[in-house]
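Usage

Read records sequentially. Each one opens with the input sequence:
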Amino acid sequence: MTGGDSMNSVLGKVQLILEAFGPDDEHLSLTELSRRSGVAKASVHRLAQELLAWGLLERRGSDYWLGIRLFEIGQRVPRQRILRDAARPYMEDLFQATGETIHLAVPDGREVLYLEKVSGHRQVTTPSRVAGRVPMHCTATGKVLLAFGPRNLVEEVLASPLERRTPHTVTAPGVLLNELARAKANGYAVEYEQTRVGYASVAIPLTGATGLTTGALSITAPTVRVDVDKYTGLLAMVSHRITKTLSAMRSSAEVL
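and closes with the structure output:
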């Protein structure tokens, strides 16, 4: 089945309808769902009734919202849930030690997907969100995932133009490759104002029980408060503990 055929199938149309909701959209009208998805209004209305029955959509007045059932299903994804559960206590420790925003991210295509976040009242402006996505090339988490991940992931990112998020975002492939080589040598990545002006992030890779890089952990703070040496020391200590926790969780699962 070709890509066009798959999008014309019932499941393909359902995918388009659900993906019509952007990260900042709490609710959409039937007309807007049809416009964004490219699915005929009558088909959107018919499929929406089934999605409402399944709990994948909710309706309030004339608008549609993503349903809580989607969240419940998402919590069952094994790899993501295990990594998040293992990392969350240590993320809270990092927050207590720094007072800054802590992110847990995994690769998803050419982007990083935030699995978890711990922050306080003085979090970054235009805040990130759990399940939010950001291009790999401009984030500290993305850079370490590229540096310590498979080579084909780097090639995939470089196959398309590198989006400029701020005046400081690296958009030249050669410069990005140099940054990745530096991250590989240092064991961590740092980005200054490449995602948000006025903020910087420090990130390290997280190693799973099998020894492969499974995610990345970062600390994000205003550039005036960033302490790279302190952050890398804390992140390194925490990463070892997370790896041990993941190994223990894997062993426990094998026993069960």
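Summary fields computed downstream for this record:
- The chain has a mean pLDDT of 84.
- The radius of gyration is 20 Å.
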